[in-house]
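Dock zinc ion; give full complex structure.
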Amino acid sequence: MIHITLPDGSVKSFDKGVTPMDVAKSISEGLARNVISASFNDIKVETVTPLTTDGALVLYTWRDDEGKTAFWHSSAHVLAQAIEELYPGVKLTIGPAIDNGFYYDVDFGEHTISEKDFKAIENKMLEIARGKHDFKMRSVSKAEALALYKDNEFKTELIENLEDGTITFCDHSTFTDLCRGGHIPNTSIIKAVKVLSVAGAYWRGDENKPQLTRVYGISFPKQKELTEYLQLLEEAKKRDHRKLGKELELFTFSQKVGQGLPLWLPKGAALRERLENFLKAAQKKAGYEMVVTPHIGQKELYVTSGHYAKYGEDSFQPIHTPKEDEEFLLKPMNCPHHCEIYKSSQWSYKDLPKRFAEFGTVYRYEQSGELHGLTRVRGFTQDDAHLFCTPEQLDKEFKNVIDLVLYVFGSLGFENFTAQVSIRDPKDPDKYIGDVSNWEKAEQAIINAAKDKGLDYVIETGEAAFYGPKLDFMVKDALGRRWQLGTIQVDYNLPERFDLSYKGSDNELHRPVMIHRAPFGSMERFVALLLEHTGGNFPIWLMPIQVKILSLSEKYEKYSEKVLNLLENHEIRALVDHRNETIGKKIREAEMEKHPYMLIIGEQEENENKVTVRKHGGEDLGMISIEDFAKIIKVDIDKTLKTF
Ligand SMILES: [Zn+2]
Ligand SMILES: [Zn+2]
């Protein structure tokens, strides 16, 4: 008998050789039908792997990330088989599961493949899938493995790097692939497939090596799920921030100004200003002080901070002064400047914490091929701040920063997020600077803060930076995509490098701890994310124009102006569309511009001193007084803009 521990902590006894699928069946038939993969003692196993020792078993279904990975990994085998059958003589290389689907890198030899071939591949895959072929693992010797792939230099290279005795193949149908395992039980679970795209990819990512064709695909256990996924992709295209940014006249790029250097248009600049003011107001309440620092700094500054070693070589080259030949760098980070601000005074423990905030523009060189809209740029503005505190204050300061980040998320409609605490690997102490007791304190402070704030968090050992542990937020946007947002980082390194100190109650000098934080990350990336998350329908408090007043004809111009004035008295941002156009056209345009409210003004409205209210998307609120409308919109604003 062996003892199997299940995730709920219960322990069950089974005969030696029981499989994960048998265990699932012993729990319920329903579970057995849904189980598609498993892990045993944290190692992925097949659902048919005989278990021979005591251990912890986790069963996964399609709903789990691990289940999806097994599903897509198995689908990659089916894709490879389909390609091999349709294009005899191709050479298969590697084909992993990815976040959304899978790919296979293939040397197509004399064949070429394009979008028009996708349907045939999909049909072939479905035909194979319907055959209900089991995925079966077997061990092979290195010699056998090399023999099978004697004409495939890519697989040969992979096998050469494996140790004899550890090599396994996976068979299904008539197809065999070099594989470490992690499959769904059989092919018939794959009910819907889509070949998404093809792209060039170098073998092992090395541009000096042969170019292969990467075939991307995705698969699902239900046709309906594929349909929904494709709709999501369509929606993502519509919400592409580069497209929306143009339509909403927020930003542009100019080849003459230079690649990766966004130009903010008046509407975009106004949006940015509102975001900045929103954060500034919260920061003020939280005891931050604004500072301003220059866009360049002496090279020496970044040598001291260590940024030169990190960014220097691969970055923008130094600027030289004409006479003295001084060397300056474009600022890649604001931290060194803020350290020097801290250093400009003598601090006692009673003065701390000091919290210096700046919307600081920084410049980092990105290769032109890496640039992408506002998400990858060469110049961007961070909503940066650095907190300098005593080790005893770290706990409280960290919690306060979390509160601020959560306030930002809440007010901007990001409700779905998880947190990751990155701590050091205690087995590798040489990798980290700063003393162990401080690290322990900081890690505990972060974990306590995450717990106290009720965050859904995971701890990642060994993921800390060499200079300190951190907390990252992973935000899920409206389309289910994950973004990293709002990192809070503890730092022991810069206070050391800049020799920062404060006088303690013992009258001795001590090192402060530094916290780096930027809830938005950068204004550029954040606006991009916000555009894609909301599709341009920002929370109403942030909307450039909250109300558009549409008059039925020029006759009502005066009354429209009166409505506008009244709204402005309530600090509501409104605009009148006076043009001599049909009301239908005015409504359509206002919809496109995403104004949350439209007020329609005609004879009856003027006579009764009222407005007819239409919400973005078409909901009709009828004819009401201006005061009543002002109340409605105020409630709406209060609902989205929480108080800090
Ligand atoms: Zn496999
Ligand atoms: Zn910093």
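Observed: The two ends are 59 Å apart (CA to CA).
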